[in-house]
């Protein structure tokens, strides 16, 4: 694992925690969707940067 892929995965998991927290607080759905998109992009970018695909 490289440093950047690790960082992207950690940020993605942090955003997933924010999604769960915001959903429990009944925040606006648009904000939860925006966080979901950000978390999915961070996790996907982190996983794609792993060297297992080569």
Question: What does this protein structure show overall?
Answer:
The structure is a single chain. The chain is mostly helical. Helices cover 78% and strands 0% of the residues. The chain contains 2 helices and no strands.
Percent helix, as a range, is: over 70%
Radius of gyration: 13 Å
User: What's the tally of helices?
Assistant: 2
Task: Describe the global form.
Answer: elongated
Describe the main β-sheet briefly.
none
Q: Stretches where pLDDT falls below 50 for ≥5 residues?
A: none
Mean pLDDT score, rounded? 91
Instruction: Name the helix and strand elements from N-terminus to C-terminus, one letter apiece.
Output: HH
State the total count of DSSP E strands: 0
Q: How many angstroms separate the termini?
A: 13 Å
Briefly note the structural class of the backbone.
mainly alpha
Strand content: under 5%
Nutshell version of this structure?
The protein is mainly alpha-helical.
Task: Please name the defining characteristics of this protein.
mainly alpha, 0% strand, 54 residues
């Amino acid at each position: 694992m490289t440093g950047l892929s690790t960082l992207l995965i950690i940020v993605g998991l942090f955003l997933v925690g924010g999604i769960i927290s915001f959903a429990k607080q009944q925040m606006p759905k648009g904000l939860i969707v925006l966080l979901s998109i950000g978390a999915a992009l961070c996790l996907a970018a982190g996983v794609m940067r792993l060297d297992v695909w080569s």
